[in-house]
Amino acid sequence: MARILIVEKEGATRNTLQHLLEREGHGVVQANGLEDAYTQAPADFALVICDIALAGEHAEPIIQASRPTPVILLADTPSMHAAIASLKAGAIDYLPKPFDQDVFARSVREALSLPRDAAPLLSSPAPPSQRLASHPGGTGQPVEMIGHCRAMQQVYTRIRKVAPADVTVLVLGESGTGKELVARAIHRQSDRHQAPLICVNCAAIPETLIESELFGHEKGAFTGATSSRTGLIEAADGGTLFLDEIGELPLDAQARLLRVLQEGEIRRVGAIETRYVDIRLIAATHRNLHQLSSTGGFRLDLYYRLNVMEIDLPPLRERGDDVLVLAEHLLDGIARKHGRDGMRLSQRARQEIHHYAWPGNVRELENALERGVILADRRIIAPEDLGLRGPSGLPPEASHASPMVGANSDNARQGSNASTASSTTGMPAPAAKLATSTSSEASRGSVSVISDDSEEEDLSLEDYFQHFVLEHQDHMSETELARRLGISRKNLWERRQRLGIPRRKGRRGTPSA
Fold first, then answer.
1. pTM over 0.85
2. In degrees, to the nearest 5, what angle opens at C-alpha 326 toward C-alphas 18 and 118?
3. Is the pLDDT of residue 427 over 70?
4. 389: CB partners within 8 A, 6+ apart
5. Is 97 exposed, middle or buried (0-12, 13-18, 19+ CB in 10 A)?
6. Cis peptide before 98, with omega less than 30 degrees from 0?
């Protein structure tokens, strides 16, 4: 997919990075030092990943040599000062070692998604309208956000309008809906895209440390403060600060944050002098801040300062077919992560995903898919592999199942016909039913193997076909597969096309006489 240069002194680390990147389909070239990197012409690569110890002072030499190629820096002994200097010099990201593989993969994807004319420190930055990461359909959809429902289209429109305006934004939505993705999209499409984006989860920092983390502190300000420290707000100077779960911010910190928004000034804990910062604030919460302010849990004046522009993210249960699009996208990445490429969802699993309420939203969907990839015995994920539970603690299909009273008599006759065909042809019952359904479709001149109605009546046919073909295609010819399924080769080909099951090359089987 992309050519990436790795500049790293440790051979084992280079090989690990190469393995991770090649697993994502990228081509990798290694360099063991800065001089070696120069000979490889780093500006010709799509991305440069460099150990900061080899990058030169403040990483400027490698960044200058690589321009306009984005650069990700890795640090054995990370520090806030080095991170700030590197990001201001033009690095795309700064990752400490050892790094989390998922964080590394996301950083690489984000760096590669940047257009070349949006790389940091270009002599003539592109206007925001040219930096929109457009969806192939031309909707202006950020590349890292997925969904086509009306509610998400409204979100994309709001992001596109809000990003160039240097105002405070409040992102509302349930946990797991992707509020940080909205913040990243706004930052990328803003005039501050060359400066750092600092993300802070207010709920993850203890109340006793939150002010020191956000505003910094001076040496000796409190027990254990053995040196001065730059706060995260100061680190975001010139760029964007994203405060997630701002409703969890203590009242004392809220008062100090209000001062930052009103006057642009901060004072480190234990300091006398005031420092001035220029930041854009994006805040997010799953709580009703206005209602919280009426009970004294949130400052009303801060709420009005935050709520200049509001973006409301819909929960996954209100996004219709987007859940299936998201599931397919997430499944590809999860399957690659676990070395199980080619994993697919059965039709029953897709239906269960579509009808499940998803109280945990996208985060819960991702966890369910990872569970399915790990537990599935074959390359098809069944509903039971997902391990979903309804409000009653039962699987969703059991929670809303209804008795089969007054079932359609045609369905009963179809099941009876399949049973009869099974006993006379020797085929398994699902295959016999598949053949019966195919014959009835052919008599009506349809090109589909099974009609939409029959899919709704018995989705297990879909699962059976996928299981059978994927399990036997390595040692059966197309002719033998079709015969065993009781359908013609033409119908087998049509159904492969419909389900996206490619034919494997070099099968060992030969046509049966």
1. no
2. 55
3. no
4. 395, 396
5. middle
6. yes
